Amino acid sequence: MEIYVVKAGDSVDSIAASQGIPVDQLIWDNQIEYPYRLAVGQALFIGKGEEKERPPLYSFGYAYPFIDAGTLGDTLPYLTDLYVFSYGFTEEGNLVSPASDDMWMIDQSWETGVRPILTLTPIDASGRFNNNLVSALLGDRQAQERLIWELGRTMQERRFGGLDFDFEYVLAQDRERYPEFVSLAARMFNEFDYQVSAALAPKTSPDQPGLLYQGIDYRLLGEAANRVMLMTYEWGYSQGPPMAVAPVNMVRRVVDYAVKEIPAQKISLGIPNYGYDWPLPYERGVTRARTLSHRQAVQLAIDFGVDIRFDETAQCPWFRYWQYGIQHEVWFEDVRSYKAKFDLIKEYGLTGAGYWQLMNFFRAGWLLQESMFQTERWVLRTE
């Protein structure tokens, strides 16, 4: 496996010839569309090995029930688990199902040998995120027991293989009650061979201030759940200033803290499968970026004839372009930024990679994952 960065004058034919691979393979692996134009600075995956069995890395990602069936079908072969997003609940502990039916996803997952996981978030009956639901639930033991019973019934009826807690903005007063609830659910569901996991806000210290962090206790949640995922993305976000979504220097700080509180073999690294396009100049409270996929970002660079740059500190690609008199700045993910994150997984002995989200298919990223974790030099640490 190699990564090739496009230079001025390159073509798919010249690159394929220089790398000793069929041009059709280069086009297929990197989802290069006819007429096969490239952007200077574009990173390409160069696969030179044969396909092997699925690597031992625990690989999963989140998807809404309205994901395109073809996209899901292309993605499932690279996954261990599919996290179906998302179920909610009421203050009384009644489970709220997604607005769109998810049964087809569950069926397709099992047919591919992938375990579907029920994701639980504080979404109310109206379909809106409601942070008050967390405190209401954690303060009512009867509601907790009702919710656990409904979760168990739903997982059995709809053939889910596990449960994931994605509770954000947990209040400081619930810092201990939240892990207690996760532990209660894990003890119950582990008896029936259901895995229980939790997504954790990206902390770098135990007493980190901020509503996103103060109610999340890494040590207690690491003890309560079977696995955790570090939500190591959204430094660059839609309403914030232009920057990398998951700068590896910031991601490293989170991992460095996490392994001090949680066994590395329980930890999955969160990886973004998207980027943002910001109109400039950025104005706080006014500017809002649009979300875009890897392919959309590269196509923008091609269409506007601009070079893709690479930030060595963030280990992330970016570029600027003009449209209708407005300058834009784009930050996105490519195989170089993915490799930097996979290198962190190896370095710290983590055992999983979790993707937010799977609504767009990035073949080169999946091929890179398979290539990097199919080497004898990488040992899955499960002891």
From TrEMBL:
One Gene Ontology term from the biological process aspect of the record: carbohydrate metabolic process
Gene3D superfamilies assigned: 3.10.50.10, Glycosidases, LysM domain
InterPro entries: CFLE_GH18, Chitinase_II/V-like_cat, Chitinase_insertion_sf, GH, Glyco_hydro18_cat, LysM, LysM_dom_sf
Domain LysM, chain residue ranges per copy: 2-46
Keywords linked to the UniProt accession: Glycosidase, Hydrolase
GO cellular component, one term: endomembrane system
Keyword check for Flavoprotein: no
Molecular-function GO terms, alphabetical: chitin binding; hydrolase activity, acting on glycosyl bonds; oligosaccharide binding
Keyword hit for Hydrolase: yes
Domain GH18: 60-383
Name of the protein in question: LysM peptidoglycan-binding domain-containing protein
Organism: Candidatus Enterocloster excrementipullorum
